[in-house]
What does this fold into?
Amino acid sequence: NAGVMQNPRHLVRRRGQEARLRCSPMKGHSHVYWYRQLPEEGLKFMVYLQKENIIDESGMPKERFSAEFPKEGPSILRIQQVVRGDSAAYFCASSQQGSGNTIYFGEGSWLTVV
Amino acid sequence: EDQVTQSPEALRLQEGESSSLNCSYTVSGLRGLFWYRQDPGKGPEFLFTLYSAGEEKEKERLKATLTKKESFLHITAPKPEDSATYLCAVRWGGSQGNLIFGKGTKLSVKP
It folds into this structure.
């Protein structure tokens, strides 16, 4: 009964390095979402993907951030040249095909930039 | 302008003291209102989905209701293990399928 799997759970990067966060959706789910949660703030939508296709990236910062969901393998959120302001919890979620379906979340990846 | 507003921000209850959390929304074309529970250091855990005004869902001590402008999460006779942050989110006609979240209500239940 595997849920949404994220790794790593915790990641420390120095300023200027790259961070790669991985997400495997629940079995049978073909839609993946990435959200960011800053301290004392709510969850903010970043990007919505299907296999090999970005559906909505309206919440993604214009620079340094990218996401993919390849035909094979997990979805990856990539942050280049990290800055201290990127420190946050990054949550991946997944749902079945169809916009009316429930979105289930993983346990999150906590990025700390030092 | 916030599209999803939760109140109160924090709520302290004694064990057994029933109360309600509020989630008001201003989006048009609601396609679902979702309640999640989040424990510290964990991801949001799905509780309920409501789709139309008048709909109600129940699970153990929790009951969620929906009107055209807001949703309530009623907690009956809470226990300390109900302590968590409760998140409300909406999916609306202008979104591609993603959710807009409120900032949450942090509930503390003291024994």
Q: What stands out?
A: The longest strand of chain B covers residues 30-38. Chain B has a mean pLDDT of 93.
